[in-house]
Design a protein that fits this description.
DNA binding, sigma factor, elongated, Arc Repressor Mutant, subunit A, single chain, 176 residues, RNA_pol_sigma70_r4_t2, RNA_pol_sigma70_r2
Amino acid sequence: MYDGCRQRVWAYVVSRAGRQVADEVVSETFTVAWRRLDDIPEQPLPWLLGVARNILRDSIRAEARRAMLAAELGAWTGQAEADIAEDVSERSALLKALATLPEDDRELLILSAWQGLTPAEAARVVGCSPITLRVRLHRARVRLKQAASASPLMQEAATARRVSARARITVGKEAR
């Protein structure tokens, strides 16, 4: 089955998402096929393409969640919109700051921002009351803000924003 269908599954994935993700999606597709060997019909290609399609859809959703998490993390630390280079460095710094937090804090932040769960839903996931979760989430956000503000990348970005704001003010005064 692998030898007979791999190239066609790979071509399908490349046509939908490009070469960068094709090998990973094909690998994951055949991993699912291996786990569900009894569910594969006599003609496996359509089934395999459906699995690949679902994996692609899930990866697109995951990328959207990562983008929402980055935006949410930026909002938590009070970051304003900046140019693209600043956004990239800030996102990197925030994700590094998130990685330094304890696992429990990361889980709460991700459940809230990335997964979009309400406090009541997140509380059910972690096994505590919604009030307790809100307190823990607040503390996790504070720790994230502290970790991000200690980052040299975030300090450089903040300096760049202040310089940029001063330049806009100066240009505005000159225009009058």
